[in-house]
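User: Could you check the structure of this?
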Amino acid sequence: MSKFKAFLRRKNIVFSAQRYGIEALGAMAQGLFCSLLIGTIINTLGQQLGLPFLQDVGSFAMSVSGAAMAVAIGYALKADPMVLFSLAAVGYAANAEGGAGGPLAVLVIAIVAAECGKAVSKETKVDILVTPGVTILVGVALAKWIAPPIGTAAYAFGLLIDSATKLQPFWMGIAVSVLVGMALTLPISSAAICSVLQLTGLAGGAAVAGCCAQMVGFAVMSFKENRWGGLVSQGLGTSMLQMPNIVRNPRIWIAPTVASAITGPIATCLFGLEMNGTAINSGMGTCGLCGPIGVWTGWLAPSAEAVAKGAAAISPSAMDWIGLALVAVVLPAVLTPLINLPLRRLGWVKDGDLKL
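Assistant: Sure, the predicted structure tokens are below.
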């Protein structure tokens, strides 16, 4: 056993929730963002502006999402170059075979293939054949074997959340908004979670509300300490920047979380806000304005996963735009500082607690 542990250390193979659930998942979201998400945005702009070149660019970027996710995961796992490059084929296969649950299939299969590739890397004199051969064979074999059932399970669970939100828009609006919003602030990937669960429709709208509440809420609430730089870095970047402060004083998390519990059901019950763009947008919030952009692209050209759940293109009304603006920006910016006022009076939140 000691020799096996020494081998794992030498190969930098670490079996831990931190490595797989945070580092690999976060990297996968970045890979998805740099392919499917940005490709969707460019493609939509091309459609709206009548520019075929932009549509082609977007389509090319979207087509390599599986490979991009797998390579990003391999990078997070500190895979050797030969393993890393081989993961492109693994990711493509897992995403294609996984269908609606492609991202989840890529996450699981790329991790296994990367660790197997790392285990044999530089162990033979024909490394140039063995390392890519093992990585690709293991990955593609798993893609053929387990990716389809993973896709079916992920789609079924996402459909369950979507159906439950339609049946109980108030309570599920609160639950989805709060949980996905908290995931966005935690050092895990809310974007990857939403993509894995194919979270679109009304549930996707609640997720957008929760993520925006965290990002805009923290940005406005901490303006006194962080000024304009903090407003931009949190409001258009990520509320994850507040995690060290949350660890020191968890009570600073109360106001944006309560705000998300308010905006979630407002999105689902009052405005019927649906996020029918690419599922990853549901977990992006105002990061690069991807959440609102996802709602907009979903109005004009729903994603394949949203269409599968009955979504159709619409011409947004003034009320749709008002609802989006209120839920994504205005309400979080107003509610969070107001909710934080009594917390300050109680001494639960003090000056400097939100300083980045």
